[in-house]
Amino acid sequence: MQISCSDVRRELANYMEDDVDAELRSRIERHFRECDGCYALYDSIREVVRLVATTDIIELPAGFSRRLYERLSTISS
Q: Which parts of the chain have pLDDT scores under 70?
């Protein structure tokens, strides 16, 4: 039985947290093999989760905060 894109997207968080039964997991994975759009969404979310989970600290260039504040103040004016 096939699963729709909207059903996959609705269950995506549960799928990623391994909180779906084996039958639904199989249907979602089959859908990923057939639907580039849903797989791209899943892959993007997975990558964001991986990046957020890293403990690496990114050092910002000198003056970054000042330049950001200046740009934001011109946008909101």
A: 76-77
